[in-house]
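Thread: Newbie trying to understand structure tokens

Hi all, I'm a second-year student working on a class project, and my supervisor (Dr. K.) asked me to get a predicted structure for one chain before our next meeting. I've only ever worked with sequences, so writing a 3D structure as a token string is new to me. If someone could post the tokens and maybe explain what I'm looking at, I'd be very grateful. Here's the chain:
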Amino acid sequence: MQNSNDLPSGVLLIDKASGMTSHDVVAIARRQLKMKKIGHCGTLDPMATGLLMLVINRATKIQDLLMSEDKTYEGTMTLGVTTTTQDKEGEVEEEQEVPEIGEEEIQKIFGEFVGDFEQIPPMVSAIKKDGVPLYKLARKGKVVERKPREIYVKSYELSRVELPEIDFRVDCSKGFYVRTYAHDIGQKVGCGAHLSALRRTRSGKFTLERAVAVEDLKTASRDDLVKSFVSLAEISLMRGA
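---
Reply by user tm_fold:
Sure, no problem. This is what the structure looks like when written as tokens:
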């Protein structure tokens, strides 16, 4: 049995495909690398794509540190429809007519969600209540009180406004729910909204530039994947340690 110190360590950046869980990606990486000690930083919902950071071997010790950093997301929200999960995966709760609203007014509403504010996490989330993940309670039709969380948005940008759809980019803190952001903005507009697309493009200093696509992860050799690792020494330099 190999000592863990003899095995490679580092962070493997993955560009997650839609329709798979973060755990699915970890399972593929374990198979391809023939290693068990692999975790991930920051769960991405199955519908979401983009940057998923896998911490491998000794890098699991800095998992919490890496997860605590700011993120950047690109998304699409669809006005006029609310869902049980606040995204397109849920069942439709309510449909309302989208008001005639100009881009200037939409910018103003987005501007209200900048800086420090509180966000109530969605029921369909991995947050635990008495040791049970909320999404498991939600599946049973239960709704429990969730404590508001202190989060922040550094900046945002609207890249397309073609109602009922709005494409946006948001730079935010850890623990930020983009689907709740879409839901809350929809409430401000007055017709509701849900998140219809999501892509994570950055986490801390890490971007998609060095990310391995899931399809390549499935077929890559162990040696090639190890060459793709961001080493612990490089991470220390990136973080200014």
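A couple of things are worth pointing out once you decode it. The first strand starts at residue 10 and ends at 16. The radius of gyration is 19 Å. Feel free to ask follow-ups in this thread.
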